[in-house]
Amino acid sequence: MTHTPGIVITGASGRMGQMLIKTVLDSDKAQLVGAIERTGHEWVGQDVGVAMGGAPIGVLVSDDPLEAFAKAQAVIDFTAPKATLEFAALAAQARCVHVIGTTGMSDDEIAALEPASRHAAIVRAGNMSLGVNLLVQLTKKVAAALDEDFDIEVIEAHHHHKVDAPSGTALMLGEAAAEGRGVDLNDVSDRGRDGITGARKCGDIGFTAIRGGDIVGEHDVLFAAAGERIVLRHMATDRAIFARGALKAALWGQGKAPGAYDMLDVLGLSEG
Ligand SMILES: NC(=O)c1ccc[n+]([C@@H]2O[C@H](COP(=O)([O-])OP(=O)(O)OC[C@H]3O[C@@H](n4cnc5c(N)ncnc54)[C@H](O)[C@@H]3O)[C@@H](O)[C@H]2O)c1
Ligand SMILES: O=C(O)C1=N[C@H](C(=O)O)CCC1
Prior knowledge:
By secondary structure, this protein is α/β, with parallel strands linked by helices. Helices cover 35% and strands 24% of the residues. The protein has helices at residues 15-26, 48-51, 65-69, 81-93, 107-111, 114-117, 130-145, 168-181, 185-188, 240-252, 263-267; strands at 6-10, 31-36, 61-62, 74-77, 97-100, 121-124, 151-158, 189-191, 205-211, 217-225, 228-236, 259-261. The strands form two sheets. A seven-stranded parallel β-sheet has the order 3-2-1-4-5-6-12, with helices on both faces. Strands 8-9-7-10-11 form a five-stranded mixed β-sheet. The longest helix is centred in the middle third of the chain and has 16 residues, at 130-145. The site of the ligand O=C(O)C1=N[C@H](C(=O)O)CCC1 has 9 residues, from helix 8. NAD(+) binds at residues 11-16, 37, 101-103, 125-128. Keywords: Amino-acid biosynthesis, Cytoplasm, Diaminopimelate biosynthesis, Lysine biosynthesis, NAD, NADP, Oxidoreductase. It is an enzyme of class 1 (oxidoreductase). One of its GO terms (molecular function) is 4-hydroxy-tetrahydrodipicolinate reductase.
């Protein structure tokens, strides 16, 4: 008999929460065993299928994560940094694989995940799509091949509801470019130009964030030199790509040793 892992989706009513619920329900490799929302949210207590405008599926939306996690093998979490930190401790307690798609986490918040990763596998990535994770590796390679005559700029565009900038993906791409160049992103990152900024500093990696309408997510890595430009581009047109990646991560994590992993591990794209 094959074991089908039980999955809990946090932030059930969110843009990604609903996409993740559909993805798990459509899969024959996993089963939805829980859906979590904030205390006081109108979905709490409702059948999640009905809350999403469809037929009942027998899973009630709850505001008690520990009770839900105790019945599951994985938690897929696309919520907000504070909530994700709380869920990490509870998922570790329940020995669930914790797949984190939440972006906008500070360095301190990311470091605070470490105790949980000693008890359970955590897979965290600012972008769970295959295309972006390939672009990360391409960015690293191109940056390694070019010298500082090529200015590197990361340009991203997202819908007008997005609350964090630069996007998690833009930061992954900036990290990859910095790694390719053999520098620390913290030393060369140029964010939020405004006013008399002075000329561009050689070696900097710049970030620009566009917000508008219903843009799902677009990322360019621009390498600009005298007389030529290279642009590496990813365009997401459907949030399903992130949900499919997250479910893949939840399944990949089953039986893995406790620790901190990313989508490069899941997709087998890690080098060395
Ligand atoms: N890694 C990726 O591939 C990827 C892809 C898309 C979005 N994201 C990220 O996922 C996050 C969510 O994006 P979204 O567009 O779905 O946002 P959203 O605002 O539509 O959804 C967030 C949901 O989380 C819920 N939530 C917040 N705090 C909670 C708590 N304490 N307990 C339970 N639920 C809580 C909210 O009520 C809301 O339903 C963002 O950080 C976004 O950047 C990541
Ligand atoms: O819609 C969002 O929010 C997205 N967030 C991720 C990011 O910050 O890069 C991935 C793309 C969509």
